[in-house]
Specification:
The complex is a heterotrimer of chains A (about 575), B (about 425) and C (about 190). Helix content of chain A is about 25%, strand content about 30%. Chain A is α+β, with helices and mostly antiparallel strands. In chain A, strand 32 and strand 33 form a beta hairpin. Chain A starts with 5 loop residues before the first helix and ends with a strand. In chain B, helix 4 packs across helix 5. Chain B starts with a helix and ends with a helix. Chain C has two domains: about 40 residues; about 140 residues, no CATH class. Chain C is built from four helices and seven strands; from the N terminus they run H-E-E-H-E-E-E-H-E-H-E. Classes of the chains: A alpha+beta (about 575), B mainly alpha (about 425), C alpha+beta (about 190). Chains in contact: A-B, A-C, B-C. At the A-C interface, helix 2 and helix 3 of A face loops of C.
């Protein structure tokens, strides 16, 4: 800094210069002031505001648990009002302060420039030698800089090139989005396993256990909320759902240890008027879940459907509307590829309310829906493989309808059943076997098209039939189990009754076949094990010690049974 | 269950309300019995009248005319500064910096490539009028009319000289920015000039944090480095540079003959004053000729290399387009690599469109960006090669002059020239003499 | 010298030529814009049938208070006691208590009309365009609440930041003379 010259001093005494300088200083002061004010305001809206919002959110959760706490209620309302008032005020203040800030910046700039203008120093060019060489040097440096710039650009492009991109030209990728039919055959992915057949893929299933003494029981886990749905298995996970009038939940247990891995909440659509009520026999969680190998899906009698991934994250939730179902909606789910198949029968058949929905498993959007001119039913749909092509078989009053599960087109229908349909159909011996409760067992050939009532009904066995439990068959014999304990065995080929056996027990769970054995689980929890064959031969009875409504699920060397309160895993320690 | 239980539950079930099928109104509109009428809502506010758009264009032309007069005739820095502040207030703070000629490049590009896009006439005028003025009178737009330039010029307090070589290197960014902006506008991917406009957040007095920080950083740099956005980033400036080189009349430090007193050397905060050239030492000419030949041969190589690089980056470039991003996300979800969904993928599914259509569209966009990317790369290669060639050619200047391409016509250098002072004194005396 | 003069005139000729070419180029751009010109100016607007109520409108708008506000289509509204656009998913009671309201700024006003109908109106000065009510109304109600860009607030940016971030690509440019896309009963979804 050189010494002040006389010129400088005269310049500074100039009143215009002083005015400009003062204005500039004033501008700077205001600038600082408004910056500080804006920063304070920012802290308010960025820190204090969200903190208050979190607090009120927590309080809102709290009030759900304590609905009568008036103090908490008024606190919530006051805090909410405060938050809203502050938010508006802060926005207004920020805007005004920004204007003032702008004004002070303008003031500072213009005044500062004027002041500076008046006190400019005269130019003092430096001594420079050899301009020619300097220019050559500058040009060389410039060329180097440009080359350097090129290098940086190239580096940037290289880095960009290292980022990944998605090739959607390729069909295969790391694994398909859903499990194949083959994979499903080895798991128990829905009610009564693959095809709803109730047949275990494994034969190394225990034949002896005692729940009361704890023998043969690998683990027992308490299920938080009750429900009548059966366990669903996928590799090392067991899925259940449970509900009560206030909550609906999906549970995932570890198949090896019985530890509850996660529970997922399903939001509930409240009814337009009043409270949702359901028959005690059906319960709030009657439908069994289904999985496609990547997601598990659950439906509740309120018409709420939700899907979770295997880590417990809820993927989507959909409300199909509260169904008009006499006993409460209880049909279980099925999956096909990545579609979730829902048989949504309701009403009296003439009001056109019944539908079949196929939801996209990933997003929950409706992939296709089919109108069904049928009243409410309590059967579950099955997907079977007929001559290499998949068919979706549904049973309601009075039709057995088959659809193409990929797009919902109707393949064939047969008018052959009646009544309140609860037992589901099965596919055995190349025939679709459907039950008319209390009345008959009907066999339909699934190879037809259109209305096959007169052409493809193979036989009808009219000696009576069960009202709740679905049948089970090994292809030769089909077994029907009545809820009051009557076991009937018929030939699959012609429908002729082979034998009848009174089991002196009540049954809700559907029968299962393991290898050459019949597993029948009664209401008290006792498993009746009998030989599959033309005559009844009991092989043993195993007690559990708890009431059982749900059907058992079978895995490699394991049986999973859901009792009224607990989930049991029966098997030997590995 | 018993018959009785069934009857009971059936009657109970009649009380449970049911909802109409999905696809129609869930709740039928009510029939009011009390004579209720729908409330008369206030009419929805109308958009800004088209008249204002024409007013903006008129103000632009008027400002440019005035700027040309002040810069080339009046030659007063104070007046130029005053006009600059006025246009900053009008185009910047009053009109919120949108629409500006820099962004208008994208609108015009989109018009050329997308026949369904109808460009508002203001955008077209804003693009063309400053270019025409530049062809006649140099970068008068930059000097006193552009709000972005004005805000940077206003905050400049202590200019630091940026070495010439650094300038050349940094200016590559502006060319790349222009090329990328044209590419993304032409393919309908995004208007990146608008998205990354650093100063528009200040004009609006609101914006998201990233842009505010970017703008504030540029302004902070701009306290010391004059007009950083204008010199190193502005894509419009690239075009103005080249047109200004051809302009009929341009800014001169003095209209009279330069006496090479060297007093103006440090006058320009933007490094736009060029000194007279000197003869090189003997051996230098041969080296320079060889170097020039080398760079001329290198030029097509750079163009080809750039084109190849741009082409191979087509998939990454395509990600700027939202349809491609949607397709990538959908593919990841559908192939099971990701189990969760996002708003984007859910929204796509809600449209009911088949994902095959999405993939086809995205593949088409990628193809367009392959061609475009190659052109962009070739353009950047050409610019680099061209710059190298230009730096190997010998310039001949006899006096101190304002670089026709880089001069922002701010008028600061006028008062540094003693000949200018002489001329002004003479004209003042002549004016006084007439009275 | 003669050579220099030649060089100068050649260079000048080149320059003039280039100048003319540039002027022509700029003129072509002029021609293009006039040819494809839009007589009517356009502004941004949301197509309410595409909107999914994601909430980006409140956060992506460049203005502090978003230019997007919620609108109520009274002809479509069901006037339900249990309005899923007004109340939180599991309300403690069906009243106007703060703990039951979905709207974070309290912009929806609920008034009793007759049994069992309630009228829901939107106070625009409070609405911030977050779309929570839109999402609730779409999911479980009639979808009468929807978002619209307000043209007394919208700056009509060359590239709308919300449009770029909208997951369902619901933003389009509409003529400034008819700047709103409202829901109608006959087009009810």
């Amino acid at each position: 800094m050189t010494q002040k010259t006389e010129q400088d001093s005269t310049r500074e005494m100039n009143p215009r210069y002083q005015a400009a300088r003062t204005t500039a200083i004033v501008g700077a002061v205001f600038l600082a002031l408004f910056t500080v004010l804006l920063v304070i305001n920012l802290i308010g809206s960025g820190v204090i505001g969200p903190r208050r919002e979190n607090k009120v959110a927590a309080m809102k959760v709290q009030i759900q648990k304590e609905p009568t706490n008036q103090e908490l209620l008024s606190e919530i309302r006051q805090l909410d009002l405060k938050i809203r008032r502050d938010r508006t005020w802060r926005l207004d203040f920020a805007r005004k302060a920004a204007f003032m800030l702008l004004g002070s910046v303008l003031l500072l700039t213009v005044a500062g420039k004027l002041a500076r203008d008046m006190t400019r120093e005269p130019p003092r060019p430096q001594r420079v030698m050899e301009r020619g060489e300097m220019q050559i040097r500058e040009a060389k440096q410039a060329r180097r800089a440009v080359a350097g710039g090129l290098g940086i650009l190239a580096l940037g492009m290289l880095l960009l090139g290292l980022t990944r991109w998605v090739d959607f030209g390729r069909a295969e990728d790391t694994g398909p989005a859903y499990a194949s039919m083959e994979e499903k055959r080895e798991q128990w992915h829905r009610f009564r396993g693959p095809g709803g057949a109730g047949i275990s893929a494994y034969t190394n299933i225990p034949t002896q256990w005692d729940g009361k003494k704890g023998e043969g029981i690998l683990w027992k886990a308490k299920v938080p909320l009750p429900g009548k749905n059966s366990p669903v298995l996928w590799k090392d996970r067991v899925f259940l759902s449970g509900a009560d009038p206030n909550a609906r939940q999906v549970y995932c247990f570890d198949a090896r240890s019985g530890r509850l891995l996660w529970k997922g909440d399903v939001p509930v659509t409240p009814p337009r008027e009043g409270k949702f009520e359901i028959m005690e026999d059906t319960g709030y969680a009657a439908s069994t879940l289904a999985t496609d190998g990547r997601r598990v899906c659950a439906i509740f009698p309120t018409g709420d459907v939700a899907a979770f991934d295997f880590t417990g994250r809820r993927l989507w939730h959909k409300s199909l509307g509260i169904p008009d179902s006499a006993y409460g909606y209880a049909s279980s789910l099925e999956t096909y590829e990545k579609l979730v198949l829902i048989q949504y029968d309701q009403g009296d058949g003439k009001d056109g309310k019944s539908r079949f929905y196929a939801l996209d498993g990933v997003s929950g959007q409706i992939a296709w829906e089919a109108k069904r001119p049928l009243p409410g039913s309590w059967t579950s749909p099955i997907v079977i493989d007929v001559a290499g092509r998949p068919q979706l078989i549904t049973v309601a009053n009075p039709l057995v309808v088959s659809y193409n599960p990929a797009n919902g087109t109707e393949l064939w229908r047969a008018e052959c059943v009646a009544g309140d349909m609860a037992p589901s159909a099965i596919y055995a011996g190349d025939l679709v076997l459907a039950i008319e409760p209390y009345s008959k067992l009907v066999a339909v050939k699934p190879t037809g098209q259109g209305d096959v009532t007169k052409t493809h009904v193979a036989w009808k066995m009219e000696d009576g039939a069960p009202d709740i439990c679905s049948p089970v068959s090994d292809g030769t014999y089909v077994y029907l189990l009545g809820s009051e304990g009557l076991l009937m065995c018929c030939n699959v080929a012609d429908g002729k009754k082979v034998y009848e056996q009174e089991l002196k027990a009540d049954f809700r769970a559907s029968p299962s076949i393991v290898g050459d054995k019949l597993y029948l689980l009664d209401l008290k929890g006792t498993m009746h094990i009998a030989r599959v064959g033309p005559e009844y031969k009991e092989l043993g009875k195993c007690e559990l010690g708890e009431e059982c409504y749900a059907s058992p699920a079978f895995a490699d060397g394991r049986i999973y049974i859901r009792g009224a309160e607990n989930l049991y895993c029966i098997g030997q320690a590995p | 269950m018993t018959r009785f239980a069934r009857i009971l539950t059936f009657t109970m079930a009649l009380l449970v309300p049911c909802l109409s099928a999905v696809g129609e109104l869930r709740f039928p509109p009510p029939e009011f019995e009390s004579g209720y009428q729908f409330p008369q809502a206030a009419p929805l506010p109308t958009a800004r009248s088209a008249l204002y758009e024409y007013l903006d264009s008129a103000v632009l032309v008027a400002a440019l005319l005035l700027a040309s007069y002040l810069i080339l005739r009046r030659r007063s820095r104070r007046a130029i500064f005053g006009l600059m502040i006025l246009t900053l207030l009008y185009f910047g703070f009053w009109r919120d910096g949108c629409i500006c000629p820099i962004g208008a490049i994208q609108n015009v590009t989109l018009t050329a490539f997308d026949s369904s896009y109808a460009i508002p006439i203001t955008a077209g005028l804003f693009f063309m009028v400053p270019l025409v003025f530049t062809l006649f009178w140099g970068r008068v737009f930059c000097g006193a009319v552009c709000p972005l330039g004005a805000i940077q010029d206003a905050v400049l307090i202590r200019p630091v000289k940026v070495p010439r070589w650094l300038e050349s290197g940094l200016r590559l960014m502006a060319y790349t920015y222009l090329g990328a902006a044209v590419l993304f506008a032409a393919t309908g991917s995004a208007f990146i000039i608008c998205r990354y406009d650093p100063f528009v957040a200040f004009f609006r007095l609101s914006g998201n944090w990233n842009i505010l920080i970017l703008g504030a950083s540029l302004l902070l740099i701009g306290l010391f480095v004059g007009r950083p956005y204008c010199r190193f980033l502005c894509p419009y400036g690239v075009m103005l540079r080249h047109l200004s080189r051809l302009s009929r009349r341009r800014v001169t430090i003095t209209p009279d003959e330069c006496i090479k007193c060297r007093l103006c050397e440090d006058a320009c905060p933007f490094g736009a004053i060029r000194e007279p050239t000197e003869d090189w030492p003997e051996g230098e000419y041969k080296i320079a000729k060889r170097r020039l030949a080398l760079f001329l041969v290198l030029l097509p190589v750079l163009v080809a290399a750039g084109g190849w690089a741009g082409y191979s980056l087509k998939e990454r470039l395509a990600r700027v387009h939202p349809r491609v991003r949607t397709a990538e996300r959908m593919y990841l979800e559908e192939s099971g690599q990701i189990t969760e969904t996002t708003n984007v993928s859910n929204a796509f599914r809600a449209t009911g469109q088949a994902s095959e259509v999405l993939y086809k569209d995205a593949a088409e966009i990628r193809h367009r960006l392959a061609v475009g990317g190659a052109l962009l790369g070739a353009f950047v290669g050409f610019v680099v090669g061209g710059k190298l060639v230009a730096l190997s050619v010998r310039r001949r200047r006899a006096e101190y002059e304002a670089d026709p391409a880089g001069c922002f016509a701010c008028g600061r250098c006028y008062t540094y020239c003693p000949k200018e002072h002489e001329r002004r004194k003479k004209s003042r005396e002549a004016a006084a003499g007439y009275r | 010298m003669a050579n220099d003069k030649e060089d100068i005139t050649r260079r000048k000729f080149l320059r003039e030529g280039l100048w003319g070419a540039c002027l022509t180029g700029v003129g072509t751009a002029a021609g293009l814009t006039v040819a494809r010109n839009n007589r009517d100016n356009t502004v941004w607007q949301i197509d309410p049938y595409k909107c999914i109520g994601c909430g980006n409108c409140a956060t992506y708008c460049v203005l502090e208070r978003s230019a997007v506000k919620c609108v109520q289509a009274y002809a479509i509204c069901g006037y339900c006691d249990l309005c899923t656009g007004y109340l939180v998913p599991e309300p403690k009671a069906l009243d106007t208590g703060a703990e039951n309201e979905l709207c974070p700024t309290g912009a929806i006003k609920r008034t009793y009309v007759e049994d069992p109908y309630y009228e829901y109106t939107i106070d625009e000065t409070l609405c911030n365009g977050c779309g929570k009510c839109v999402k609730g109304c779409l999911a479980f109600g009639n979808g009468s609440l929807f978002l619209q860009v307000r043209h007394d607030r919208c700056k009509n940016c060359n590239e709308c930041s919300i449009a770029a971030a909208c997951p369902s690509r619901a933003y389009t440019r509409v003529p400034a003379g008819q700047p709103y896309l409202l829901k109608r009963v006959d087009l009810a979804k």
